[in-house]
Amino acid sequence: MKESLLDIICCPIDKHDLELEVDEKDGDEIISGTLTCPECGETYPIEDGIPNLLPPDMRDEVTA
Amino acid sequence: MKGKEWYQADDVADEYDDKRFTGGGELIDLREKQAVLDALGPVEDKRILEVACGTGRFTVMLAERGADIIGLDISPAMMAKGRKKAQRAGVSGSVEFMRGDAARLPFPDDHFDAVFAMRFFHLADTPVTFLRELRRVSKEQVFFDTFTRPSTRVLYNWLLPMGSRLYSKRDVESLLADSGLSLAAATHDFMLPYGFYRELPGAVARPFRTVDTALGSTPLGDAVASVSYWNAKKE
């Protein structure tokens, strides 16, 4: 994902803006990191450039 | 294997495009892309959300036409394909992929100019919940397809590894009403179900498609179509 996505996305649960912590970047692309909702404290990982904004109750339900 | 697990398996993602959209399946791919383009109109600089974007067939196509687009899906394996497709097409700058739940979208109200979902509602267990959420994040337009009953799809469904929900016209009308949407346009196609085309090489499938299309344009056509495209607007 690109940092500009932060202007659009919000916490899927309470729709609060998210805060970004970057672990790995490739040019403009954020490859891995964490999105945190300061309102409810929930965290959402970014893996292989794809943010995982599944609510926590769905996150572990299905894996390949 | 249930639909969700089946859909997210790595090997399913690996074969997804090849199995579905080559040979006779290419005719399906072309028709679906046309349906999306017809419904969304010129997409340049439009903000678009695609729910259940899978391998990004439509996501990348719309980005190539200038849309500012987000593809959301449950399967990271599918979207990894989508990311590669976007890179090859040179449109990574205007495409984002993300995992998310279509019933709890990570976007504010009224954000997108258009929201669409292809091949999604046949796997949706609570369609009204999903459609309301699609409506919430759209300023105006919501576009989706359904597999229709009664149609040849009823037979084809027996062969599928995952469940597949069929909708009558009345089902969709009540779904729209319950979601605060009104129907702007509907088109119906494919007297022969997708599975029929997929089994055939392109050269064999094409004449069938010609007959299918010809019959589809007769008054009988809409009544026997197995696929419907619904273009809805916020009330």
Please, could you describe this protein's structure?
The complex is a heterodimer of chains A (64) and B (235). Chain A is mainly beta. Chain A is built from 1 helix and 4 strands, in the order ββββα. In chain A, strands 1-2-3-4 form a 4-stranded antiparallel sheet, with no helix packed on it. Chain B has one domain (4-150, 159-188, 228-232): 3-Layer(aba) Sandwich (Rossmann fold), CATH 3.40.50. Chain B has 11 helices and 8 strands. The longest helix of chain B is centred in the first third of the chain and has 16 residues, at 25-40. Chains A and B meet through β4 of A and α1, α5 and β3 of B. Chain B: This is Class I SAM-dependent methyltransferase.
What key phrases describe this protein's structure?
heterodimer; A: 64 residues; mainly beta; four-stranded antiparallel β-sheet; 1 helix; 36% strand; globular; B: 235 residues; alpha/beta; Rossmann fold; eight-stranded mixed β-sheet
Task: Summarize the model shown.
The complex is a heterodimer of chains A (64) and B (235). Chain A is mostly beta strands and 64 residues long.
Q: What is the topology?
A:
The complex is a heterodimer of chains A (64) and B (235).
Chain A: E1 19-26, E2 29-36, E3 43-47, E4 50-51, H1 56-59
Antiparallel strand pairs in A: 1-2, 2-3, 3-4
Chain B: H1 3-8, H2 10-21, H3 25-40, E1 47-51, H4 57-64, E2 68-73, H5 76-89, E3 95-99, E4 112-117, H6 127-137, E5 138-148, H7 153-157, E6 166-167, H8 169-178, E7 181-189, H9 194-198, H10 202-216, H11 221-224, E8 227-234
Parallel strand pairs in B: 1-2, 1-4, 2-3, 4-5, 5-6
Antiparallel strand pairs in B: 5-8, 7-8
Helix pairs in contact in B: 3-4, 4-5
**What is the tally of helical segments of chain A?**
1
How many helical stretches of chain B?
A: 11
Estimate percent helicity of chain A. Answer: under 10%
CATH homologous superfamily descriptor of chain B:
Vaccinia Virus protein VP39
Strand tally of chain B is: 8
User: What structural class do the secondary elements of chain B suggest?
Assistant: alpha/beta
What's the SSE pattern of chain B? HHHEHEHEEHEHEHEHHHE
CATH architecture of chain B: 3-Layer(aba) Sandwich
Determine the structural class of chain A based on helices, strands and strand pairing: mainly beta
How are the strands ordered across the major sheet of chain A?
A: 1-2-3-4
Mean pLDDT of chain A: 92
Describe the sheet with the most strands of chain B.
8 strands, mixed
Q: Whole-Å distance between the termini of chain A? A: 22 Å
Determine the strand fraction of chain B and express it as a percent band. 15-25%
The percent range for helix content of chain B is 40-55%
CA-based shape of chain B: globular
Report the oligomer. Answer: heterodimer
For this structure, what is the CATH class of chain B?
Alpha Beta
Q: The CATH topology of chain B is what? A: Rossmann fold
Domain Methyltransferase type (chain B): 49-140
Protein name (chain B): Class I SAM-dependent methyltransferase
GO molecular function, one term (chain B): S-adenosylmethionine-dependent methyltransferase activity
Keywords (chain B): Methyltransferase, Transferase
